[in-house]
Amino acid sequence: MARRRQRADGHCLWPNRKGEDPLPGASGIPPAAGNGQVPCLVNAEQAIDGVLKAAIAHLWFVTIHPFEDSNGRIGRAIAGLALARSEDLGRTFHSLSRQIAKERKGYSGSLENADRCGLDLTGWASWFLGCLSRAVDGAREMHRQALRKARFWTIHARSPLNERQKLMLSRCLEGFKGQLTARKWSKIAHRPLLTVERDMRELLELGVLSRDPGDRKKASFSVVVPDEPSL
Predict the structure, then answer these.
(1) Residue ranges of the chain whose pLDDT lies below 70
(2) Which end of the chain is more exposed for a tag (fewer CB within 10 A), N or C?
(3) What whole-number distance in Å separates Cα of residue 80 and Cα of residue 48?
(4) Is the pTM of this model over 0.85?
(5) In terms of domains, do 123 and 165 share one?
(6) Is residue 20 domain-resident?
(7) Residues 73 and 113 in one domain
(8) 108 by DSSP, 3-state: which?
(9) Residues 59 and 130 in one domain
(10) Strand 5-6 with 12-13, pairing
(11) Whether 10 and 106 share a structural domain
(12) φ and ψ at 222, to 5 degrees?
């Protein structure tokens, strides 16, 4: 564990991620963070916006850097707790940690910039809010795909589909990238091209697949999922 020092005014001072004082000179980190008040910040019923509270708590914790390992993971858990409380829920329905992992470079850069700027919150909070927004968008898209897949299988619960067709259709409904062609299907499913073409013809006749507009020599197909009926 990193060794903390105590300033003349009694506030605790921890090294940052590089083992240096977290701020230039002897100013150290904010007294509230240095004295172990991150839990108080998360738990307090203050006027500060809950999302900003999450951003501040995460920044303070990773800047204090109290452990040799897992500071980022714990900091993300603290931020998640603050976000859940800001929404009056026991859990969140998006994954900030997953989104941070996708944007690791931007995450590390924003923390480093905050360190260099004396824990100025502007840049960090801007990045944090953007990351959270993208996490929510990602969760919304996952939810849309899950409903779309459930609707498809409800419609085709009694359709005469073989196991090969079911497996490939499931793959397509889970976010298949690029165009679906017979050759690509054959390669992914490890099936002979003639077998795949026969399966695809059957799906076209059932209305499960539709042919995309374009060159018939390089035909591509899409899974047909009716839109959800409007209320």
Answers:
(1) 1-47, 89-92, 215-217, 228-231
(2) C
(3) 16
(4) no
(5) no
(6) yes
(7) yes
(8) helix
(9) yes
(10) antiparallel
(11) yes
(12) -135, 150
Q: Which pLDDT score is estimated for 34? A: 44
pLDDT of residue 66: 79
- Structural domain that includes position 180: 159-223
- Structurally, the chain folds into a number of domains equal to 2
What is the pLDDT at residue 227? 74
Shared domain for 96 and 135, answered yes or no, is: yes
What's the pLDDT score for residue 72?
83
Q: What is the pLDDT of residues 104-123, one digit of tens each?
A: 899 988 888 888 877 778 88
pLDDT tens readout for residues 60-94? 888 888 788 888 888 888 888 888 877 776 666 78
Beta bridge partners of 102: none
Q: Report d(CA 100, CA 145) in Å as an integer.
A: 22
Shortest CA distance to 162 belongs to which of 201, 188, 210? 201
CA distances from 195 to 19, 30, 134, 173, 199 (A): 62, 67, 41, 21, 6
Q: Which two tokens stand for residue 113?
A: 């910039």
| DSSP H helices in 66-192 | 71-86, 96-102, 104-116, 121-155, 163-173, 182-189
Label residue 227 exposed, middle or buried (CB < 10 Å: 0-12, 13-18, 19+): exposed
Is 32 within the bounds of a domain?
A: yes
Q: Name residue 178's amino acid.
A: G
